[in-house]
Amino acid sequence: xxxxxxxxxxxxxxxxxxxxxxxxxxxxxxxxxxxxxxxxxxxxxxxxxxxxxxxxxxxxxxxxxxxxxxxxxxxxxxxxxxxxxxxxxxxxxxxxxxxxxxxxxxxxxxxxxxxxxxxxxxxxxxxxxxxxxxxxxxxxxxxxxxxxxxxxxxxxxxxxxxxxxxxxxxxxxxxxxxxx
Length: 180
Fold this sequence. Notes:
The chain is of the alpha+beta class and 180 residues long. Helices cover 20% and strands 43% of the residues. The strands form 2 sheets. Strands 1-4-5-6-10-9-8-7 form an 8-stranded antiparallel β-sheet, with helices on both faces. Strands 2-3-11 form a 3-stranded antiparallel β-sheet, with no helix packed on it. The model has no long low-confidence stretch (mean pLDDT 85).
């Protein structure tokens, strides 16, 4: 069997640690319509009201950050992965990668379901609970299919705010569009 590397795990860990002060904020690459436009990644997405786009060391694309809650800013990050396989296989490998990196005791897959954007882009949504560096997080990983690539969108919040943020995360990711 051919070994396939799916590299979303570093993003999950780094986003979970995105405490205030770890990002630089500004309005570069924000459209007049309030969308984050990342031409290098070939995508755009609406920025939720009262959220900001910020640069974070080690990330190719800007990350969206919500207001601070209990010392943490919920966030939405983006990674483009090249993968020449099915959406289902991509998500299977992504879950295995997370399990290996975090360990079974620190990762609980809560739900896995189909997801479709407003523009009809097919994807999957995986909700996980994680325990990283002594903190409990809820993370929703959206895998959206493109031509020979996948957009992995990881929305992270403190677990105690998960129910509050899920609708916001869904409505934001529904606005995702490939632009090239």
